[in-house]
Amino acid sequence: MLRDFNLTIEKGEVISLIGPSGSGKSTLLRTLVGLTKPSAGEVSLNGQTIDYTSRKSLHEARNRMAIVFQQYNLFQNMTVLRNVTIAPVKIRKRNAQEVETEAKWLLGKVGLADKHGAYVDELSGGQQQRVAIARALALRPEILLLDEVTSALDPELVNDVLDTIRTLAAEGMTMLIVSHEMAFVREVSTKVVMMDRGCTVEEGGPSQIFDAPQTTRTRDFVGKILRH
């Protein structure tokens, strides 16, 4: 449950959410895209409030945000290219040839230019997660939400996914990231938000959160994480 949570995201920012399991990080991402319905509070995009009870308002919001989960949720019976193109063509009603050209470019961007004809079960976990990121980017989101996208991966596969996110950050993609990869969070984030029990405990730049936390709760959490 989220309560007393406030956050402002500027265009091009990379904001990472950290905190113990159950602190509301993933719930926040799911709430933003309407997968978990909020019972109170307000979310606005460029000054426009999202009405989560309105199908039209929610559809417009989802056109501006895309979420990638820790489980890839790819269609096993489709090729990589088909996985990336199906939503823009079927849901957004975009031109199929245009979408296919863009999808191939996106797959190259995430290091999978040679895999567009492969089926999902022929790929490693890290490759599947990068397909999931390409699929989200094919929706042309203004904000990309990443929910523990490396937690289900073997350690040797993590860096390829993190490299993809680094590239997106360098290009100015606005991102909200949930991650336990603290070294990566420190490197890529413009702002880090420490959460606990659905609340914001502290927010600030990576150097503040990791080197000079202002609250005891943040200091205890970061200290335990970094010792491991």
In short:
This protein is α/β, with parallel strands linked by helices.
Offer a few descriptive terms.
6-stranded mixed β-sheet, two-stranded antiparallel ribbon, globular, Rossmann fold, single chain, 9 helices, alpha/beta
| Strand content range | 15-25%
Q: Low-confidence runs (pLDDT<50, min 5 residues)?
A: none
Major sheet: order of its strands?
4-5-6-1-7-8
Mean model confidence by pLDDT: 93
Which percent bin holds the helix content? 40-55%
Helical segment count: 9
Q: What is the number of independent domains?
A: 2
Second rung of CATH, namely the architecture of the largest domain: 3-Layer(aba) Sandwich
What name is given to the CATH topology of the largest domain? Rossmann fold
Assign the structural class, choosing from mainly alpha, mainly beta, alpha/beta, alpha+beta, or little secondary structure: alpha/beta
Q: Radius of gyration from the CA trace?
A: 18 Å
CATH top level assignment of the largest domain:
Alpha Beta
CATH superfamily of the largest domain: P-loop containing nucleotide triphosphate hydrolases
Multimerization state? single chain
Distance between the termini: 28 Å
Q: Give a short account of the largest sheet.
A: 6 strands, mixed
Shape: globular
Q: How many DSSP-defined strands?
A: 8
Question: How does this structure look, described?
Answer:
Helices cover 42% and strands 15% of the residues. By secondary structure, it is of the alpha/beta class. It has 2 domains: 1-64 and 143-228, Rossmann fold (3-Layer(aba) Sandwich); 76-140, no CATH class. The strands form 2 sheets. Strands 4-5-6-1-7-8 form a 6-stranded mixed sheet, sandwiched between helices. Strands 2-3 form a two-stranded antiparallel sheet. A hairpin with a 2-residue loop joins strand 2 and strand 3 (48-49). The two termini are 28 Å apart. 36% of the residues are buried.
